[in-house]
């Protein structure tokens, strides 16, 4: 069946079957880039959020960091890290992309955590302090566990964005999903089919992510049930 | 009689608002003192100055004969001995009832978990919540929540308990159970300062009642005298409105 000469369902399915070894490998790479970026980005994000909340002096630095990182495109950040820094330190394409993606996401994640921490009723801190707990102990034992819970839905959202943004790693020659699709499309001229196939891979990955985040949310809501 | 807490010439402002004006107050061991007065009269602020949730501008807070200076003294150690119960309970929602109670003894006093649980259960039994150890606060009524909060504060074995309008956020039918718990505590000899609108409780349970207006102590005295025979006109006006 040919629709307008652009798309063939037969080619779509035959290509889907033929290309799956390449795409599965590429998907695994996409997943690794994303996980590295998300884990590192969360760590940086929590630190930046805590710095931002620690007082007016340090807050300035956190604000500058967030403004610059959030104010520049991810693709520029990847290029700066991969090509710009190549004189100073030669990062592998994988780490250039993962690091850029981590830093980029950390700015958003910092704001997610800041919002979550500030949304916790200030009576919680007072209750902790009134029992003789220090402010850092109260932060760690009382505020953060509650803030983490509130951060899960927006964090899940951010992780999905990170997963899709990892496609920009294709531009520093990493054979992740999008780059693999480009290669196959250029070789076979089955442009429409190939990009729809790669769209399907992203879609499935995002759906799996979403399912995991929902499970976590459900698990964490024990105290509200 | 042993002096527990004394306040001398205490002043506190929030910006331009002078909330506490030259407050003098002494509470002896095993005394129960109620602070009454209209909203905005400074009762809660005074209470919060006593455990340094608010820091005084000037004046003295003397705890067991020792003057406490926020800049020099370790306020965390002071607060361990001064329990507080809040109007809005402020229970930790991500912890079960028992976990709420054992948190501070374990994390601050480094008491062993087994012992903390044993003592925590005992306290919960005492406030009538022996069947709620493993329930999360969201499942409790307001009165039950406040009784957990009382048990949580008592778990630190404080020398004095501060109550900041403990029944103001409760449905009327739940007020009694909390007051009953506090009465029991008073009978056991706990030193208590209670900010309250429950005049019945003040009259019945408190040894002394202090009437505050506009940041000042207008009148103080044994509860019976203050309620039955107020001397100041302002006290009379206030009591005629609330009784």
What does this structure look like?
The complex is a heterodimer of chains A (225) and B (243). Chain A is mainly alpha-helical and 225 residues long. Chain A has one domain: MetI-like fold (Orthogonal Bundle), CATH 1.10.3720.10. Chain A is built from eight helices and two strands; from the N terminus they run ββαααααααα. The relative contact order of chain A is 0.14. Chain B is α/β, with parallel strands linked by helices and 243 residues long. Helix content of chain B is 37%, strand content 27%. Chain B is built from nine helices and ten strands. Chain B has helices at residues 43-50, 75-80, 97-107, 113-126, 142-154, 172-187, 199-205, 223-228, 233-242, and strands at residues 3-14, 17-28, 32-37, 58-63, 66-67, 82-85, 160-164, 191-195, 208-213, 216-222. In chain B, the strands form two sheets. Chain B has a six-stranded mixed β-sheet, sandwiched between helices. Chain B has a four-stranded antiparallel β-sheet with strand order 2-1-4-5, with helices on one face. In chain B, a hairpin with a 2-residue loop joins strand 9 and strand 10 (216-222). Chain B is globular, with a radius of gyration of 18 Å. Chain B starts with a strand and ends with a helix. Classes of the chains: A mainly alpha (225), B alpha/beta (243).
